[in-house]
Design goal:
The strands form 4 sheets. The protein has a 7-stranded parallel sheet, with helices on both faces. The chain has a two-stranded parallel ribbon with strand order 7-10. It has a two-stranded parallel sheet with strand order 8-13. The chain contains 13 helices and 13 strands. It has helices at residues 12-24, 46-49, 64-73, 88-93, 96-115, 149-168, 190-199, 219-232, 249-260, 287-291, 300-313, 315-322, 325-339, and strands at 3-7, 29-34, 54-58, 78-81, 120-126, 172-177, 180-181, 204-207, 213-215, 217-218, 238-241, 246-248, 267-270. Strand 2 (29-34), helix 2 (46-49) and strand 3 (54-58) form a beta-alpha-beta unit. It is globular. 44% of the residues lie in helices and 16% in strands. The termini are far apart. With 343 residues, the protein is an alpha/beta fold. Bound molecules: nicotinamide-adenine-dinucleotide and thymidine-5'-diphosphate.
């Protein structure tokens, strides 16, 4: 691995993965490709560019001219794909971009990997493709049963990966992780949305009774899991990434209130805007990745505390987003009728 193409490098996990790799591999150069959608930020990549070993290319993963151009001109030997439309709530409003990026974009990358003889591709997927867990945890053999337009588009991308490997022996591996949290997460996902609202003394909208369970993973554990699967996993295989971080949405919200010293009255229980598509529980069995030598490192409470501190210390980063018209418009459109005067 000498020249890595990281797609979705201006987003949450993609940028953290670039940081992770640049720190550990002084001999590696990263080409970052990102369409700079509402979720991608130039400011997120400032420290990456300062290393001198990161070069940014604006563009969409479904644009074959751009993708083939970067891979061939930069002699890319490894591709890690983070680029995606990634928010369930947005997918319920309009799923068209999800199909374009999460399915068609993955296909374009696979074709380019094959055409340019790239040595290995790692496709970053999600545990949400398995649908809602009942008693047991998801293994890589759990059937795919997505329940939202987002998770269905991710499952579609995974199926393209599977078929490309079987049909053409394309050297590609999939990882599927649970809900991430950490620095640089766009403030529409539960944890950064709630932290940033609580810092502004605004109420937080908890869907239903808050009893849904998510299996939380600190972003650096996800990055190390992806990197381990890239270096030590087999092509054609799927590896779940998880650190046994199951917790209800109510529990996590109470923890955030404690950390920010806010009262319980800041929770506003609202009718569930996801309705029947809201998965009740995610639960990950990551023993397959552990069996090839990976271990998560981060303790949940400490990582959550560090994440809260990051949002307290980096208000310029997130206020530049929350003050944008498109951000406010989404919050109003999606939450307006539930939050009313607490918007
Ligand atoms: P994000 O929304 O923060 O970032 C996505 C990035 O992709 C943005 O920078 C955006 O500009 C870029 N992008 C979107 N469409 C593009 C396109 N067509 N071409 C190029 N770039 C495009 O998402 P994230 O939370 O960092 O998630 C990254 C990946 O990890 C996604 O594939 C997601 O499905 C997966 N994942 C996320 C989580 C999580 O909890 N956030 C958990 C498991 C898996
Ligand atoms: P989210 O962070 O959007 O991730 P995902 O949909 O991928 O799990 O949501 C995490 C959980 O938090 C999910 O069960 C929905 C819930 N939730 C709320 O209760 N209120 C909110 O405002 C948001 C954004 C999420």
């Amino acid at each position: 691995m000498k020249t890595l193409l990281v797609t979705g490098c201006a987003g949450f996990i993609g940028s953290n993965y670039c940081r992770y790799v640049l720190k550990r591999h002084p001999d590696v150069t990263i080409c970052g490709l990102d369409a700079l959608t509402y979720a991608g930020n130039l400011s997120t990549m400032e420290d990456l560019e300062a290393t001198g070993r990161f070069r940014f290319f604006p563009g969409k993963i479904q644009d074959e001219v751009v993708v083939n151009g970067v891979i061939s001109s930069q002699a890319v030997d490894t591709v890690v794909n983070f680029a995606a439309e990634s928010h369930n709530d947005r997918s319920l409003l309009d799923a068209a971009a999800f199909i374009q990026t999460d399915v068609a974009g993955v296909f374009t990358l696979l074709e380019a990997v094959q055409r340019n003889n790239v040595k290995r591709m790692l496709h970053v997927s999600t545990d949400e493709v398995y649908g809602s867990a009942t008693e047991s945890s998801f293994t890589e053999l759990t059937p795919l049963a997505p329940n939202t337009p987002y998770s269905a588009s991710k499952a579609g991308g995974d199926m393209q990966v599977r078929a490309h490997h079987i049909a053409y022996h394309t050297p590609v591996t999939i990882t599927r992780c649970g809900n991430n949290f950490g620095p640089f997460q766009y403030p529409e996902k539960l944890i950064p949305f709630f932290i940033t609202r609580l810092l502004d003394h605004k109420k937080v909208p908890l869907y239903g009774d808050g009893s849904q369970v998510r299996d939380w993973v600190y972003v650096d554990d996800h990055c190390s899991g992806i990197h381990h699967a890239l270096l030590h996993g087999f092509a054609g295989e799927v590896y779940n990434v998880g650190s046994r971080g199951e917790c209800t949405n109510l529990e996590i919200t109470k923890r955030l209130l404690e950390l920010l010293d806010r009262p319980m009255e800041m929770i506003k229980f609202i009718e569930d805007p996801r309705g029947g598509s809201h998965d009740r529980r995610y639960s990950i069995d990551a023993s397959k990745l552990q069996s090839i030598g990976w271990q998560p490192e981060f303790e949940f409470d400490k990582a959550l505390e560090d994440t809260v501190r990051w949002y307290v210390d980096n208000q310029d980063w997130w206020r530049a987003i929350t003050s944008r018209d498109d951000y406010r418009q989404f919050i109003e459109r999606y939450y307006g009728r539930y939050l009313g005067e607490d918007l």
